[in-house]
Structure formats: C-alpha cells, structure tokens
Amino acid sequence: MVFEYAPAPESRAVVDIRASYGLFVNGEFTEGHGEPFKSVNPADESVLADIARADESDVDRAVRAARTAFDKVWGPMPGRERAKYLYRIARLVQERSRELAVLESIDNGKPIRESRDVDVPLVAAWFFYYAGWADKLGHAGFGPDPKPVGVAGQVIPWNFPLLMLAWKIAPALACGNTVVLKPAETTPLTALLFADICRQAELPPGVVNIVTGAGETGRALVAHEGIDKVAFTGSTEVGRQIARTLAGTGRKLTLELGGKAANIVYEDAALDQAVEGIVNGIFFNQGHVCCAGSRLLVQESVAGEVLERLKARMATLRVGDPLDKNTDIGAINSAAQLARIEELSQAGEREGADRWSPPCELPSQGFWFAPTIFTGVAQSHRIAREEIFGPVLSVLTFRTPDEAVTKANNTPYGLSAGIWTEKGSRILWTAQRLRAGVVWANTFNKFDPASPFGGYKESGFGREGGRHGLEAYLNA
Amino acid sequence: MPDRLAVRKTYKLFIGGAFPRSESGRSYVVTDAKGRFAANASQASRKDARDAVVAARKAFPGWSGRTAYNRGQILYRVAEMLEGRRDQFVDELRQAGASKNAAGAEVDAAVDRWVWYAGWADKLSAVAGAANPVSGPFFNFSTPEPTGVVAVVAPDSPLLGLVSVVAPAIVSGNTVVVVASEPAPLPSITLAEVLATSDLPGGVVNVLTGRRAEIAPWLATHMDVNAIDLAGVPDDQVRDLEEKAAENLKRVLRPQDTEWTDEPGTTRMTAFLETKTVWHPVGI
Fold this sequence. Notes:
The complex is a heterodimer of chains A (476) and B (284).
Chain A: E1 20-21, E2 23-25, E3 28-30, E4 37-40, E5 47-51, H1 56-74, H2 79-95, H3 97-108, H4 112-133, E6 147-148, E7 151-155, H5 161-174, E8 178-182, H6 189-200, E9 208-210, H7 215-223, E10 229-233, H8 236-246, E11 252-256, E12 262-265, H9 271-283, E13 295-299, H10 300-314, H11 335-350, E14 354-356, E15 372-375, H12 382-385, E16 392-398, H13 401-409, E17 416-420, H14 424-433, E18 438-441, E19 460-461, E20 474-475
Parallel strand pairs in A: 1-5, 7-8, 7-10, 8-9, 10-11, 12-13, 12-17, 13-16, 15-16, 17-18
Antiparallel strand pairs in A: 2-3, 4-5, 6-20, 11-19, 14-15
Helix pairs in contact in A: 2-4, 3-4, 4-5, 9-10
Chain B: E1 27-31, E2 37-42, H1 46-65, H2 68-84, H3 86-95, H4 100-118, H5 124-128, E3 130-131, E4 138-146, E5 149-153, H6 160-170, E6 175-179, H7 186-196, E7 205-208, H8 212-221, E8 227-229, H9 235-245, E9 251-253, H10 267-270, E10 273-281
Parallel strand pairs in B: 5-6, 5-8, 6-7, 8-9
Antiparallel strand pairs in B: 1-2, 3-4, 4-10
C-alpha cells in the first residue's frame, strides 16, 4: 500500500513583503541612486519586491557611516557591551525565526524544512557564539589586547543568504568592527529583514549597513578606499578578481570560494548510512552548496550496490514547493543558475557520461532541476572538474585507498571532503591525506559556529567559525 | 705573497639537495662592502626557479608526513651545524660590511632563532589547533597543516633575516623555494651547505641566487606554488607580485617593517598553515 503525501504548506501569513526596499545605511532605509531591480520568487517567477540598487555614491555613504560608527561608538565600546547587543540580536532571530525561515524559502527557493531547521537556527547560534567572544578577545591567542581592523566590506552569495550574513557580521561585530554588507542580488530580502532586527535591538546607527545591488555594487564596495578588510563568499573567479583589486593596498582579505568535494565510500562503509550521506551531500539545498559532495568516489567492489540503493533513495525525494513541509528539494535559485546546471549536464552527456534521474514531475512555472547522477565519469570530464552548484552528482570509482586519495585531491579546489568507512584508522589515514579544509567522516554537510570552516588551494583562504574565525577581524 | 693560495668556494644554487650552477650559465659579481670582488654568484633563471618548485613539490609529502618530533630533531640538528660553521658566517657577514662584533652577534642570534623555531615543531598544533564543542553528537577537531610549497623572497638581512623567514615556513612541514638577498647572497649558500649536512631531506629548502626582480615574478605566477612570502620585495614591486599571486589564490605574506633582532612571535608560522577540521559522529 502506498500512502500519498498531502500538501503541507507552511503559512506565508508570517511574512509581510513590502513593495519596495531601500538601502539600510546609518540605521535608516534610504533611496539608492542606481536603477532598482526586482527580487523574484524562483518557485513561480513572481516578482516579490523592487530593490534599491546602490551605486558608488551610495556605497561611499554607507562606508562613511560605518567609519563614523567605528570611530565614535562601536570601536570604543567595551566588549561586554558589544556582547549584549549580539546576544539581543541572537534572541531576536529566535523570536522571529519562523518569519525569517519562510521569507528565506520564498526568496531563495530552498525547502522550508531546511531554512527552518538548519539556516535560521544556525544564524541564532552564530550570534550567540560570537557574542560571547566580544569581551574575551584577549584570551583568543592573538595577543593580550587585539584591536579591531576597522570597517569591513562583506559580499555574500545567494545560497545561504541569512546564514552567510551571520557568518560575516557576527565575528566582525564581536571584534569591534563595523560593516557594510552586500547581499546577493537574487536574495536580498532576509538581509533587509535583518536590518529591522538591528533596529529592534537598538544597535547604534552605522554599525551594520546593507547595500543591495549586483556585481557593480560589490566591485564598488571591495575597491572602496575606506574599507580596511574585505570578506567574500562566492565563486573562485570573482575571488580572484577581488584578490587582484586588493593587491598592494595592504587591506586584509578572506575568501571562501568554490569546491568540488570528493565523498569517498569505502567497501566496508555502513551502506545505508553512506547513501543518506551521499544524498545529503549533493541534494541538500538543491546542491547550491560550495562544500557539496559533488564527486562520489565509491570503491569498485560496492559500486553496483551503492548505486542501486542510491537510485532507490533518490526515487523517494520530493521536488517542489519550497514552502511545503514535505519538500526535500526546492527551486533552483535563478534562471541563470538553472542555465549553468543544464549546460554542464549537457556537457556531461556529450563527454560520454551516463545520465540518470528518477521519474520526477517538475512544476511548470519557476526554475527546477531534477536530482541527477552521472555514472561512467572520467576525471577529465567537465562535470568532474567544474563546480556545478546544482543537484548533480558525478560518480567515479576507485580500487585502493591510495587511488581514492589521489583522485580526491585531483582538483584545484580544497574546501571539503567526505569519508565513509567503519574502520577508525582508515578514517584518520584518509583525513590526514585529503587536502581539504573540512572533512566529514561518516557524516556530511554539518556546520557549527564553534567549528572552523574554509578551504585549501583555490577554495580560498581564512577560516570562518570558532576561535580561528576571529583572526580575520583582528589586528593582532 | 702568501705562502699558500686559498682554495675559494664556488657559490652555486641549491636545488633538490644538490648544488647545480644556473642552467643559464649566468653568474653575477658579488662585491664586499668596499666594492671589491668577493665572488661570482649564480644568476638563477626561470628554468632554475621551475626546477626548484618541482624539487620542493616532490619533497612535500615526505617532509609534511614526518612526525612533528622528527622535524624538530632535524631542525635542531641544523642549529648544531650552524653553530659549527660560526667562523665562516662571521667572515661572510664581515665581508658584507658588518663589524666583527656585529657579525658575531648576528650569527649567535641566527643560531638561537633556529633553535627557537625547532622547538615549535611539536607545539604548533597545540597552540593553533582545537577540539571544538559543536552543538550535537559529534567529535570535531581542527589541526593546522602546512600550506604546501612556499616561495620566499628573503630580506637583505643576509643571515638573521634569512633564517627568520626560512625556519618558520619549514617547521610545520612546508617546503620552500628561497630567493636569496640579491646584494648579499653568499650566506644563503653557506646556509644551504649547513642544510645539506643536517639530515634535512633534499628539496625541503631550495635556494636561488640572482636578480630578485627576474625570479620572483615566475614564482608568483607559478601554479604549483601555494604561498609566497614577500619579505624582501621592494615596495614598488609588491602590487605586481600580489596581482600575479592571485591567479591561483596563493597565500601572500606582505612585507612588514620587521626588526629581525626582535622576538618573532608565531605569525610567520601561522601565515603558511591551513586549518583542517574533521567531524565524526559520536554514538554506539
């Protein structure tokens, strides 16, 4: 007997989306001087709101506000007082958690199950964690009296809009910096709701400034001479451009960029758990995850069995309305991203890999892509080398642990990796050899404010989370 | 006329544990403080720089895979050998213009600096790593690991400055390609002779002498170099090298106003470390 799922939509009544949004500068919503743009619901392509576009003069205004707030208020404020503002923010995030989760799912397309159970709880946790550091910085190992850097310019991506905001703003403020943050152009709404949370917390004006816009706005921000530190999360290509922009300026820079993580399944792994880990690794957040386990490396002796179980599991994934509480895979964030996923998937077929998706009905409106695996993938294929940033898994096989490690490391990226085996010594042996900043053993895609996150090689530099995450925002 | 004519040393490069001349066949004249001929130093080429990177990459798995205790032992052995060559370093520093006392003090400081870094090998993880209290049933730990191949443009402080940039890079398991001081390269080759007789595996430290402005850009653009230390780069060349280093997102340590006699702190070591965080579930 098969039980069908009835729709279980989360109510949209908790959110109130305004027709238009300005820039949040010096504690006020203000007009932008660029041509406003629209934020679209990727699940049905409906326009959600008009968003102000910050031009150079707007960015300049925001940087000046941040500088004044740094010099006059936030920099001189005792750490214990800064801490209490951050604790307030954490509590307000918890109080408004359902509103934030629903708005995130509407603007981004991610399933409400994830925004409600992963993104927003982690946002609150991030502010709680760094709040506690604000008055303990002398104990963090960066000297007895480390100083803030000044004004931080922060540019974040669209895959975890509010969570990336928290990763950037919480440690910056805890260390005594002020910030100008640019959310991604397709997902500005939760950052603007966060601005309202800052007002409810009575955070002094200018400590947090939010400028919305596209690439031009981001370029103006990172190149602004009034910025002391740039933090960027996004593509490796843009990261390279920012590194060039900052060359010779002496400004601090941290970059959290792309990845092409190997998820290694040894023959002695607990296969059902491994299959859950593979699914979580690549289909969590539609695969819009820089640390996604996008290359499955499975030991040849169990490859057939793993694939069989993986396909059976994939057939149960529910793709559709992000606000439906049963949904596993939501909408692709934008038409542009969907086009990139389709282009790379076609390249996978053209280069000779075998494509498979479960039978899966996709909505007619909006941006959708069925969960997909490619088998028979060679290391030279584009789908094994390039970040797809979508629900597409490339499957490769190996015979020996040495071969697994060699293949896993055969990439210019080095953000994350997974290991599945029941043998402890093999986990540690493998983890030691993987050139990646985060290694999940018998688990995947776990995040915590106490746990440093960041990449090797072309996945960027610097760490976010934990004591390590303070370094970027302190002049030791 | 002296009774006996001195046997002079030929100053060559140090690549992969061997002492080759530059493949280009070039050399340049090194003079003493009074402008008199001191030696012909090898003038390394792009090809030499690339060979040095290959040697450093080849040495990386072995050196980084050794126990920290073993790296500490070898670095301490380097300090012993440095001490044994004290007179030779003093002569070379005096030739470069230091007074007898100043030269002696610099060699002493260089040996002591090396001993200081040697002791860090098996303590760095305790200071830079952590067990992280995550909110869930997981054991989560972070350990520092070497970044990989590091290009080091050494400062003009010919021995103490050189030691102060090489030791912190290799103590954690990185391998290095060093561009020696251009006006005073001779102590760098004598240091290479020390390294070659200290059980340090070939390729862990490679030394190039020659024109900094010629060699450094090849290292900054090299796609198999993971990080670059710009300690000895003149201000007007920093921007260009940083732009070049961005191509493969090298970690860049910018030149700082460093007094090499000051206590160094840990920043030159942590600049070339990656933090790896490993998660594992806790359960029965």
